[in-house]
Amino acid sequence: MARVTVEDCVTRVPNRFELVLVAAQRARDIASGGLITVDRDNDKNPVVALREIADYTIEVDALQNALVTGLQKQPEIDEPEEDTDLSIGEQTWPDGAGAVVLEDELKDDMQFVDAEEGESELEGDTDEVSEEKLGEADFSDEI
Q1: How many domains does the chain have?
Q2: How far is CA 91 from CA 58, 59, 97, in A?
Q3: How far is CA 64 from CA 15, 92, 108, 110, in A?
Q4: How far, in Å, are 25, 40, 61, 96 from residue 65 at the CA level?
């Protein structure tokens, strides 16, 4: 057979669209190393696939099943891995992880500076700070 036409293949696969899908599946099989059942004659894989379909040298049903299986989405089953190395009692945390800073420690470290006077309004005991003075402090940053 010098030239393969669709008319040569529609006797085997009557639907032209299905023929294209089946021939493409066979061409992918050939490209991945499948054995060719006809002479190649310097033809490319799609032409060889059509020649095989026209010559009745391959099973179209097997190609259709492979095509359907290839197009189906296979769900991945994610099974949890069992870690026998760790148990709840053996866990250790890195230094400083989960450290809690107490409010009193933060107050000791804070100093508010009055923008006009340039002096510290908070010195020593932080319990004497009123909400009024906190509201007056200038927290805006110039960008």
Answers
A1: 2
A2: 61, 59, 13
A3: 13, 56, 77, 75
A4: 10, 25, 6, 59
Q: Which tokens hold the place of 139?
A: 């927290």
| Residues 55 and 11 grouped into a single domain | yes
- Please check whether residues 66 and 107 belong to one and the same domain: no
Amino acid found at 116: E
pTM: 0.49
Domain coverage including residue 22? 6-71
Give the Cα separation of 50 and 54 in Å (integer): 6
Q: Which amino acid is at 50?
A: L
Report yes or no: 67 and 25 within 8 Å, Cβ to Cβ.
yes
Rounded distance between C-alpha atoms, residue 108 and residue 113, angstroms: 15
- Do 11 and 66 share a domain, yes or no? yes
Two structure tokens written together for 30: 């050939």
Q: Is the pLDDT of residue 100 over 90?
A: no
Q: What are phi and psi of 113, to 5 degrees?
A: -115, 130
141 in a structural domain: no
| pLDDT tens for each residue of 130-140 | 555 555 555 55
Residues pairing with 113 in the sheet: 120
